[in-house]
Amino acid sequence: MKIVAADVIVSSPDRNFVTLKITTDDGVTGLGDGTLNGRELSVVSYLRDHVVPLLIGRDPHRIEDTWQFLYRSAYWRRGPVTMAAIAAVDVALWDIKAKAAGMPLYQLLGGASRTGIMAYGHASGRDLPELFDSIRTHLALGYRSIRVQTSVPGINAVYGVAAQPNADGRRYDYEPAQRTPLPAEEDWDTRAYLRHLPGVFEAVRNEFGPELPLLHDGHHRMTPIQAARLGKALEPYDLFWLEDCTPAENQEALRLVRQHTTTPLAIGEVFNTVWDYQTLIREQLIDYVRSAVTHTGGITAMRKLLDFAAQYQIKSGIHGPTDISPVGMAAALHLDLAIHNFGIQEYMPHGRLTNEVFRQSFTFADGYLHPGDQPGIGVELDEQAAARFPYVAAYLPFNRLKDGTVHDW
Ligand code: CS2
Ligand code: MG
């Protein structure tokens, strides 16, 4: 079998997606997701201008060799653009290998280690009544684990609050990246947030009881000592996890957080290689690995990362917002079903138009996802539908503190 074509398909139903479609001389095709929110075209160029010419004529079955070739022959390693491009190729090749084998990808990854994949959904509110309604809505949709995000008095726009209006007039629901010529500026005040959040979780526990798994995303906004304080203040509410409590480029920063709290910690959605986790995993400083297959070099690299984490009893918590395409989500679900150290899977359903472009066979029922049993990863791309939605420039927002200082968004 030989690769005879590799097409980079850019489409913008509901939001921008970058999809690589690899075709073999046997007519077997494989799809890979290379979507990097707010920087999509950089991956398009990396693929079209640098990687695609290297794929033509290669044996699609030599996945590890192709991975190493793309990672090492580039000379310049790591980084979000490179690793998203490599991920797109890697997942497309696993899709082809599983289709050629006539089985769903999870069977090639060692078979199912569970009957279903626990998913968590995004509930949010500008105030408690709206938040409670959002939690009830997600429970009615079948979610059995809920992420809680809330507005903060004195702050105009906060990450993750679905009902707040975006600068481009659309509701936040579907997408934080906004179709505006420049990034929207939002405001932030960590002390106001730290005063407000524990009371919100107390109210949620009083309303919904002690059992419901609750998650929260700090979205990289606290210093290590602020994160330690929040983790401690939230201990009475028994969170499933506190995510991205502090920027973790300096992995040692989590030592201070760990010293002060037993609230489980999840980190890694902005990471793109195992190297970003070495200290965090070796020193037991986190409990969940948050990387996405799409941003961490694909199935080949993610499996190695999760195998490393397993040695330290650290579990998966794969990133799954709407800027991970249905292809990237499907790839994650096959991995989720096969690995032993599975923790939980984020699941933000895609929009109606996206589901017209990507035909998916994964299912969500009674709180659990399943990748389906189609050969391959189980997603097909309707190229005619994709062509109806050309790329639209969009940016993620950024933050400024009250004194004008740029802050983590
Ligand atoms: C978030 C993401 O889902 C999450 O945990 O952190 O929604 C994140 O903001 C987006 O993926 C950014 O593109
Ligand atoms: Mg997050």
From TrEMBL:
Q: Which SUPFAM superfamilies match?
A: Enolase C-terminal domain-like, Enolase N-terminal domain-like
**Entry protein name:** Bifunctional D-altronate/D-mannonate dehydratase
SMART domains found in the cross-reference section: MR_MLE
Q: What is the lineage of its organism?
A: Bacteria, Bacillati, Actinomycetota, Actinomycetes, Micromonosporales
Q: Which organism is it from?
A: Micromonospora deserti
> Residues of the signal sequence?
none
Q: Which GO terms describe its molecular function?
A: magnesium ion binding; mannonate dehydratase activity
Instruction: Give the superkingdom in one word.
Output: Bacteria
Q: Which NCBIfam families match?
A: ManoateDhtManD, PRK15072.1
Where's the Mandelate racemase/muconate lactonizing enzyme C-terminal domain?
129-264
One example of a Gene Ontology biological process annotation? carbohydrate catabolic process
